[in-house]
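Internal ticket - ligand job 271, 2-oxoglutaric acid:
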Amino acid sequence: MKPEDIKTALDAQGYVGPLPALDESDNGRYLQCLMDAEAEHNLMQSDYRCKTNVLFPWMDELTRNAQIGDAVEAVLGPDFHCWDTLFWIKYPETEKRVSWHQDATYWNFAPKHLAVTVWLCFSGATEEMGCIRYVNGSHRNGQHRHDDIRTRDNLLMRGQTIAHGNPLRNSVPVEVPPGHFLMHHPHMIHGSQANRSKRTRIACGMIFVSTQAKPIAIHAPESTVMIRGTDRYGHMLHDPRPTGDFETDRRAWRLAYDRQHENYYKMQVEA
Ligand SMILES: O=C(O)CCC(=O)C(=O)O
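stdout (structure tokens):
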């Protein structure tokens, strides 16, 4: 897809994709890294779910994937950094789901349209596996009110939920082949349902933000890792890239994680 078509599609429908990022061999290699990390660190139940582009060299490498970078650049321009990465794993025949939400809700920077979410799927995601569902066109209506509804089965850490309207009825499931990604607008309403299949659904999210965006809450400074271009503004601290020495990287990751979550859990949002 040409860069101008990516931007046009994102503006028109609020998401774009699935687009190819990884061939079969690279997809298998990253999937193995992820499953090894899951076995060792229990990613989905621990802090290791977030910001691991500061911790694992293979996650840092993924945030620099050329296909993903070109698509992000088509939307944000040449100068952008990675603010967060997140794992999204749903085991077979489990109830884990993602409530209806807009990603922008607790992002500690503005303006929100200077950021974009990439959702890269290693396993492939079908409707039966609980693929993402988007509410078409919902990105045009700005920020909605969210209630924090934490339940055992909601994969969102604050449980932020759009509890009004009927998003499910207005949503479309978007199936993704292995090694492909989706990209969506910060105000796109989306969520996903339980994995009813016998296969594990394995994906990771990456949030990219233009160097022009500024932090808004001041509980702690925000930090990012530079991905492309130059930071001419200096609005965010820069985290180091992982070195491959786990203990050294873990210290840098812990600082980055704590800073971000200090803001994430305290932010209030006006809708
Ligand atoms: O993995 C999912 O089902 C939802 C992911 C999501 O909400 C996101 O990437 O913003």
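Auto-summary: The radius of gyration is 17 Å. The longest strand covers residues 80-90.
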